[in-house]
Amino acid sequence: MKTKTILVCISMLAAGLVLGSCCRTQNRPTGSGEADVTLKDFGPDPAVLNIEAYTTANDNFRTVLWTGDKMQITLMSIPVGGDVGLEDHPQTDQFFRVEQGQAKVVMGDSKDSLDFVATAGPDFAIFIPAGKWHNIINTGDTPLKLYSIYAPPEHPRGAVHKTQQDEIEAEHQ
Fold first, then answer.
1. Within 10 Å of residue 55's Cβ, how many Cβ atoms?
2. How many helices (H) does the chain have, and how many strands (E)?
3. Are 131 and 50 in contact (CB under 8 A)?
4. CA-CA-CA-CA dihedral for 64, 118, 28, 66, to nearest 10
5. Beta strand 72-78 with 116-120: parallel, antiparallel or unpaired?
6. Among 31, 49, 71, 114, which lies 20 to 30 A Cα-Cα from 43?
7. Cα–Cα distance between 144 and 140 in angstroms, integer?
8. Per-chain mean pLDDT for the chain
9. Are 112 and 135 in contact (CB under 8 A)?
10. 26 and 59: one domain?
């Protein structure tokens, strides 16, 4: 019985992937290559968004796209030669997906021992366990566009950090 259930689940997943890939172009940006996106925090309400279009349209260092009670999605645009910043999140697992650009990924148990090194490009996923020190460095010649999922949430709901001045002004609204 378990084998039959597993096969049914695999078949449903495969069908969903096929349907999703055949319909994917309907949700891609058209015309000038830019999607009609509104960069805001859609959470905690249900939302269905073209994450690739939102990620590539974002020019802010960080834009919170969706915040729930247990998870948060942020969009990031890292300038050429820039980085996310060396950090760790003791209680938060983190997932990144690169949509555009090239990156060097470093991780380790301490900020002085970043012994995990990898490269990532478009369509790559980066998994960061809670407590791991990490940084993602833009090694390409275009802005690095990626999104991150935090579980649990890490940033204030609706936060947008384009520059330090933008952050100060946002706090006074």
1. 25
2. 3, 9
3. no
4. -20
5. unpaired
6. 31
7. 7
8. 81
9. no
10. no
Cβ atoms of 126 and 95 closer than 8 Å: yes
The two structure tokens encoding residue 10: 């695999």
CATH code at position 160: 2.60.120.10
The DSSP call for residue 73 is: E
Q: What is the pTM of this model?
A: 0.73
Please report, as a single letter, which amino acid is at residue 7.
Answer: L
Q: Which domain holds residue 74?
A: 39-171
Say if residue 56 is in the same domain as residue 105. yes
Q: 106 and 80 in contact (C-beta within 8 Å)? A: no
Is there a contact between 77 and 59 (Cβ–Cβ < 8 Å)?
yes
Contact 37, 60 (CB under 8 A): no
Q: Judge if 26 and 103 occupy the same domain.
A: no
Q: Which residues contact 134 (CB under 8 A, 6 or more apart)?
A: 84, 86, 87, 88, 94, 105, 106, 107, 108, 114, 128
- Distance of alpha carbon 173 from alpha carbon 167, whole angstroms: 10
Strand partners, 63: 75, 160
Structure tokens at 45: 């309400």
Q: Give the total residue count for the chain.
A: 173
Of 80, 89, 90, the C-alpha closest to 148 is 89
The string of pLDDT tens digits covering residues 15-43 is: 443 334 333 333 333 333 445 899 999 99
